Amino acid sequence: MIDIQDVYKTYTSGEQAVEALQGVTLHVAKGEIFGVVGPSGAGKSTLIRCVNLLERPTLGSIRVNGQELTALTPAELRLARQRIGMIFQHFNLLSSRTVAGNVAFPLEITGVDPVQRAERVRELLALVGLSDKANAYSAQLSGGQKQRVGIARALATQPDVLLCDEATSALDPQNTSAILELLRDLNRRLGLTILLITHEMNVVRQICDQVAVISDGKIIEQGSVVNLVARP
Ligand code: ADP
Ligand code: ADP
C-alpha cells in the first residue's frame, strides 16, 4: 500500500545542509499498522511529511496504492491528498468551527453537496463516538475528544491510508489508550492502513503489527512487533 524506496531528503539553507533522510526504504502492506519509532531529530516528521506530500524527497520513490507521489502535477496532488488522511499531535482543529464544521471541512473543499455532507458528518461522528458533540467548539473538548474530531476529519474523504504524527503524544495515558483502541478498531472495521510515527515504544507495543526504528535519517532495524519488541 505504501512503498518508500531509497528516499533521501536534504534541507539546505545557505551553507548549511541537513540530511534528514538518508536512503529510507519501507513497505507497508494493505491493512497493516506500521510504526516508525526513533528519537527526536531522527527524521520521523520529515518521512511522514514526504508521504503526505507536504515535503518532496530530494531523491527516491514513494508510491501509495501504486501511484508515484514524487512526480505529480499540482492537480494530481490535490486528488492524491484526498486518498491520504493525516492526524497531528496538536490536533490542528479550526477553533472558529464546531466539531461538525471541522469534520465537514474536507467535504466542503471537495465539493460534496450539503445534504450528503451532513449525512456523512453524522456517520463520521458516530464512527468516532462523538455524535453528542456535533455542535461543540474545540475549546469545550478534552484532548482525547479533539483527537477523535481529528480522526473523523481525516477519514471524511475515505482515504486508503491514515498517517499519524505523534497522535497521542499530547494525551494522558487513559486518552492515549482510548485513541489507540479506536485506531485499532478502525483498522479492523474499515481495513484502514495506518502509518504512525512516535517516540514512544509503548505506542508501538500497543497497536503496531510492524515496526521500523529510525536513527539519524536511516532505518536501523525493521520487523514484526512480536519479534522485535518484547511485550510486558
Ligand atoms: P523527528 O520528527 O524524528 O524529530 P525531523 O524529521 O523533524 O525529526 O528532523 C530531522 C532533521 O531534519 C533534524 O536535524 C531537523 O533539525 C532537520 N529539519 C527538519 N525540518 C527541517 C527544515 N524545515 N529545515 C531544516 N532542517 C530541518
Ligand atoms: P460552523 O459554524 O462550525 O462552520 P456550520 O453550522 O456552518 O458549522 O456547518 C458546517 C458544516 O458542518 C456544514 O457543511 C454542515 O453540513 C455540517 N454540520 C453542521 N452541524 C451538523 C450536525 N449537527 N450534523 C451533521 N452535520 C453538521
TrEMBL record:
Belongs to the ABC transporter superfamily. GO terms for biological process: amino acid transport. Residues 2-232 form the ABC transporter domain. The chain holds residues 1 to 232 of 325 of the full protein. GO terms for molecular function: ATP binding; ATP hydrolysis activity. The lineage of its organism: Bacteria, Bacillati, Chloroflexota, Anaerolineae, Anaerolineales. This is ABC-type metal ion transport system, ATPase component. Keywords: Amino-acid transport, ATP-binding, Cell membrane, Membrane, Nucleotide-binding, Translocase, Transport. It comes from Longilinea arvoryzae. GO terms for cellular component: plasma membrane.
